Amino acid sequence: MAIIVDEKTRVLIQGITGHQGTFHTKEMLRFGTKVVAGVTPGKGGAEVHGVPVFNEVKEAVDETGANTSLVLVPARFAKDAIIEAIDAGIRTIVVITEHIPFHDTIEIVHYARYKKVTMVGPNCPGVASPGKAKVGIFPNHIFREGNIGVASRSGTLTYEIVDSLSREGFGQSTCVGLGGDPVTGLNFVEVLEMFERDEETRAIVMVGEIGGVAEEEAAEYIKDHISKPVFAFIAGRTAPPEKRMGHAGAIISRGRGTAKSKIEALRKAGVAVAEFPDEIAKLIKENT
Amino acid sequence: MAIIVDEKTRVLIQGITGHQGTFHTKEMLRFGTKVVAGVTPGKGGAEVHGVPVFNEVKEAVDETGANTSLVLVPARFAKDAIIEAIDAGIRTIVVITEHIPFHDTIEIVHYARYKKVTMVGPNCPGVASPGKAKVGIFPNHIFREGNIGVASRSGTLTYEIVDSLSREGFGQSTCVGLGGDPVTGLNFVEVLEMFERDEETRAIVMVGEIGGVAEEEAAEYIKDHISKPVFAFIAGRTAPPEKRMGHAGAIISRGRGTAKSKIEALRKAGVAVAEFPDEIAKLIKENT
Amino acid sequence: MKLLEYQGKHLFERYGIPIPRGRVVDSEEEIKDIPLPCVIKAQVTVGGRGKAGLIKEARSEEEARRVATDLLGKRLKDIPVRKLLVEEKVEIDKEIYLSFSIDTSKRAYLLMANSLGGVDIESIPDEKIVKEWINPLIGLQPFNVRRVVERLNVAQRKEIYDIISGMYRIFKDYDCELVEINPLALTREGKLIALDSKIIVNDDALFRHPDLVEEDEGIDPIEREAKQKGIAFVRLDGNIGVIANGAGLTMATLDALKNYGGDAGVFLDLGGTDDVEKVKQAFQLMKKAKPKVILLNLFGGITKCDTVAKGVELVISEEGIECPIVARIKGVNEEEAREILKNAGIEAVENLHEAARLATEFAKR
Amino acid sequence: MKLLEYQGKHLFERYGIPIPRGRVVDSEEEIKDIPLPCVIKAQVTVGGRGKAGLIKEARSEEEARRVATDLLGKRLKDIPVRKLLVEEKVEIDKEIYLSFSIDTSKRAYLLMANSLGGVDIESIPDEKIVKEWINPLIGLQPFNVRRVVERLNVAQRKEIYDIISGMYRIFKDYDCELVEINPLALTREGKLIALDSKIIVNDDALFRHPDLVEEDEGIDPIEREAKQKGIAFVRLDGNIGVIANGAGLTMATLDALKNYGGDAGVFLDLGGTDDVEKVKQAFQLMKKAKPKVILLNLFGGITKCDTVAKGVELVISEEGIECPIVARIKGVNEEEAREILKNAGIEAVENLHEAARLATEFAKR
Q1: What is the distance in angstroms between the Cα of D228 and the nearest Cα belonging to chain A?
Q2: In what order do the strands lie in the sheet with D84-88?
Q3: Which residues pair with B250 in a beta bridge?
Q4: Å from B38 to nearest chain D CA?
Q5: How, if at all, do strands C92-103 and C108-114 pair?
Q6: Neighbours of chain A (3+ CB pairs under 8 A)
Q7: DSSP tag of B240
Q8: Is C48 exposed, middle or buried (0-12, 13-18, 19+ CB in 10 A)?
Q9: A139 vs A149: CA distance, rounded Å
Q10: Count of other CB atoms within 10 angstroms of residue A223
Q11: D222 exposed, middle or buried (CB, 10 Å; 0-12, 13-18, 19+)?
């Protein structure tokens, strides 16, 4: 099964003709993803690694049956691109773009919900279901097929953790990058719910960060709704307050969003929390 | 069963202290409706026919468990009142108010859908399920319990038709006034779907008018999805084009929305269409 | 409320949409320092000005004054021409149609465009019209405009983009039911200019737009009076005055009349009222329309039957009603109403068929 | 971007929110024709001005000049005071807190209010704060404002209503993360005046607001340079310079250091880059911060390990790096990277534990 993306996923890449678009089209194809179309206004008719490029999403959807979009367009055009995808009937949207104006994001997130579209990101590395499809910018080589569901607010740190899981023999059902912005389409709670329902997933790994209360809310949710074992790593235990640690979302503001509060909440919910990224595999071994 | 309103309906009246509010509170109570609260900003603490009045919808919902709201506030305050009801957790909203600015209505309709709230109206007489609840301004005496579902874009014409049905022995499961505005929360199609699923309803009566294409869309829908017998009356066969016949929605504009096109479409879908309002009961007798 | 062409163009100008140089006049004496050659257009909101000869050209000021004098005396569908718009004549290379309206069935805003402007949009086959639907909660997005501009096949993409954006802002800012430019001209010099404007503002939202002033177009004084009094009054071609309570019931009454060969001359919806005074006003309005017979069709609810009967009695006793009245009374307090009307000399029937038949008979006498 | 108090108040004024009479000066000579008695407030965006003695009163122009001279020489958390706001002193009867911000967990706008303004909102118990959530698709509605005004228990309902509406328009029009008035003073004369302003504009939306100009506050020149170059650089209290790719990984590196007793002095996130030049710039920035040791933690993906190694090599060969470097390299092209670094005299370790331990050791020497 896997969640969000799988063998039925037919990907359209918005911003396919850019440097990133071209590179990741190739990588996704290599992963085995069905990349069926690209969109760049004004570049219709071109091809990128054999993938046809269209001027408009509607056209691309009608011609290729794309059902999932990967958004790589610059921040100031992202809202337009995402609404275009939603109105064209795309059902799952993965937004890689970072620095999208916050008021744009919050409107997009609600509009996607209204239209019952699953939106992942923004400012995220994407979603990958090893053996099925990758819609994102993760390096291909870190994944391995298996039964661990990974949900993460981080980028490279996730790669590191997934890589170490794979090396230790723990393959993944799906790995979801939630994104590092303060507001994202999916939070931990929604993805935990999907993993709980997914038969292929046996255990869940959460990679959290300082900032916001998504991890605390997840802990609350886990207590009542998650029967599968959950493991976590929280980055930023030593981060000072009121400083943005790279991500817009990674900030301890007004005393809220500390790693301490997140780790405590998770432990209270029965989640095993690692001290180092490479400890997660060990914890899984010990606890499953 | 019945649709939209039934014995579980707990009504809150927005604009309860006005002339209309006071009058209809009494009438609804007489009908047997559970009117549990009223709201008029600034009049909190008062009572209308024994019904407590609150300043805010949230307060009223929290204290009384109201789940349905009847909106009687003046047009320019209607948007505010309806959004307040939606945000306070009301699940069904019946909007009687007429002359609501059109751009307000279209936003409200979408917001209600986003929040999965059933909105009836605006500019409608309400919804009544005889023997259970009436949320609206219909005269009480016209109804009789039974198995006919009535959906109507009109006001008094509906009263007349329901009255004649009752006299002829055809009681009603639920009577829904859709409203006379060009855009309404529920159209025929949605209500037909509800009546089809409602076990108590055996036959459906549609009262249509010139303007728009709601009747034509209903005809299309009936062909494929409705197994119960449908009867119709369409007002405005002799109305001239480009003139608003009282309602904002009742206008034949740019050649569309004529009674002829509606009647033809309905007949093609197997619907028996009456020439006079009092003919419907006869048609039902002949066809069921 | 329909704006006159020049009112719409003033809005266009404020929102950055190019319009021809020109000005409004209401007498031939004002025609001075006008652009030449010019187009002189009668300012009325009813359609079909061109066919009716109310749009003319002039090459000199003298000619323009002559044309103006002529136009200012004319009428279109009974509406007198009171203002003229005098504008520079533009050499047209191509005409485009653009509009924002509402798709009531999709419950969305509708942007329509076509590169065969200048004719009525209704006469253009549907597949040749570019349509773009906009969700009201999220509003117009750049991609909506791009999709339309792409299909218009005009080099001035940026300019059209800005014009469409400006139209949308008018549409939203002014609670419009329609904002239409037909045609948007592409001139020989490659410029885009809105040659006409059609804007309909939602009457129910006029309270938000005190800057919009309705022009006195000299419309039917009875309809104007009815509007002021909040009574729905529509003049029709027949000779029977129909009064009922509720728009649907009033329409159904018109239809019933037709079944018996009668033609309504007035549609008058009393609405939901329980006020004798308002009933009186309605009958006074009806009297002014001079019908051959009045057909009163009542289904009493909020509007109680006896209240209406009292209103009728009052008008009869105070000022009289010359034509016969056929009354069909049902619902709340119908017995009392019958009694009151009987005393005023009117026999009420209980059946719409009977009432329609009777009224038609009176009308044909 | 945080606006200075006076910048925020200029916005307030434009949106109809009352502010005290006053003006901004950047030297004591400008203090002339000021309202008296007055309050003189240092214009810095860091908090705690009051406690730090950077808000003073004066009763004469002479006193005001003396205070100004004194304040203009001071610093708060290393930020020099460069501008002063001189305002009329207001007699306060009651203080109110008002703000619009974002509830990231409810994904809604959040309007907060409290009638115990003047103190930090964080110090007020949660149940005493009035909160109202606003859905972004439908926006602020009158009932939201009424609910808040109702609970503030102030007679000036209409005035507060207008102030809240104005704040919301600023919040939306300027893409704000926060619009706060603390306190909104109710004066003895019954007037409402915004005594302070705190506005944070979303950096990612600044391109839409060319009218907002960031004041040169004299912040850390290295942080400024990093910002211009698009590198995430945060100065911390320790002496170990941490460079990693990705914010999460960089934070995890900081945390690992702490496990071994080490303290980071710089957080530097290379981000996703495969450009030798950008790596070079990052190391040059790091050098300026003069750490005792640099800890490089790399997980190669888009940012390839050898690219980073080449950048490091370039800096060493061209200008040298004085402090030791501990490198932990994993991922795409890690072998090549190890080789390049080895040739430049740096031994890479494969394990974060080992790297953190080693870096801490160097830092303590």
Answers
A1: 14
A2: D22-25, D84-88, D38-42, D55-58
A3: none
A4: 16
A5: antiparallel
A6: B, C, D
A7: P
A8: exposed
A9: 17
A10: 13
A11: middle
Would you say C192 and C184 are in contact if contact means Cβ atoms under 8 Å apart? yes
The answer to whether residues B259 and B236 touch, using CB atoms and an 8 Å cutoff, is yes
CA angle A201, A203, A207 (to 5 degrees): 110
In whole angstroms, what is the distance from residue C20 CA to residue C7 CA? 14
- Would you state the structure tokens that stand for residue A1, as one six-digit string? 């099964």
- Residues whose CB is less than 8 angstroms from the CB of residue D309 and which lie 6 or more positions away in sequence, other chains included: D329, D336, D337, D338, D340, D341, D344
In this predicted structure, which of A113-127, A221-235, B231-245 has the lowest mean pLDDT?
B231-245
- The rounded distance, in Å, linking the Cα atoms of A36 and D9 is 53
Residues of C in contact with A114 (CB under 8 A): 137
Residues of A in contact with C146 (CB under 8 A): 41, 56
- Structure confidence at residue D69 (pLDDT): 92
Question: How many angstroms separate the CA atoms of A129 and A135, rounded?
Answer: 9
d(CA A176, CA A191) in angstroms, rounded, equals: 8
Q: Nearest-CA residue of chain A relative to C135?
A: A87
Sequence letter at residue D295 = L
Q: How far is residue B32's CA from residue B22's CA, in Å, rounded to a whole number?
A: 16
Please provide the size of chain C in residues: 365
CA distances from D234 to B34, B85, B104, D164 (A): 62, 46, 47, 35
Q: How far apart are CA D194 and CA D176, in angstroms?
A: 18
Cβ <8 Å between D353 and A237:
no
Determine the residue of chain D that is closest to A137 in CA distance.
Answer: D302
A170-174, B85-89, D90-94, D330-334: segment of lowest average pLDDT: D330-334
Q: Does B167 touch chain C (CB under 8 A)?
A: no
Distance from CA of D150 to the nearest CA of A (A): 27
Q: How far apart are CA D335 and CA B94, in angstroms?
A: 70
Contact A103 D136 (CB under 8 A): yes
Buried b (16+ CB within 10 A) or exposed e, B245-261: bbbbbbbbbeeebbbeb
- E-strand ranges in chain A read 10-14, 34-39, 47-48, 51-54, 68-71, 92-95, 118-120, 126-129, 133-136, 145-152, 172-177, 203-209, 230-235, 272-274
CB within 8 Å: B56 and D137: no
Q: What angle do CA D2, D8, D13 make, to 5 degrees?
A: 165
ipTM: 0.93
- Torsion, Cα of C9, C12, C14, C18 (10° steps): -100
Q: CA separation (Å) from D206 to C134, D176, D251?
A: 27, 10, 27
Contact status, residue D267 vs residue D234, Cβ threshold 8 Å:
yes
What does the block give as tokens for A101? 């104006």
Nearest CA to B184 out of B135, B248, B271, B133 is that of B248
Dig out the tokens for D332 from the structure: 């795409």
- How would you class D48 by CB atoms within 10 Å of its CB: exposed for 0-12, middle for 13-18, buried for 19 or more? exposed
pTM of the predicted protein model: 0.94
- Helix axis angle, A156-167 to A280-287, nearest 10°: 50
Q: Using 50, 70 and 90 to split pLDDT, how confident is the model at C218?
A: low
Distance linking the first and last C-alpha atoms of chain C: 40
Give me the active site residues of C, please.
Answer: 97, 180
pLDDT band, very low/low/confident/very high, at A60 (cuts 50, 70, 90): very high
pLDDT at D40 over 90: yes
Residue A238 sits at the chain D interface (C-beta within 8 Å): yes
As a whole number of angstroms, the distance between CA D320 and CA D314 comes to: 9
Rounded Cα–Cα distance for residues C176 and C168 (Å): 10
CA distances from D350 to A165, C309, D263, D298 (A): 16, 98, 21, 10
The helix-helix angle for A102-114 and B102-114 (nearest 10°) equals 70
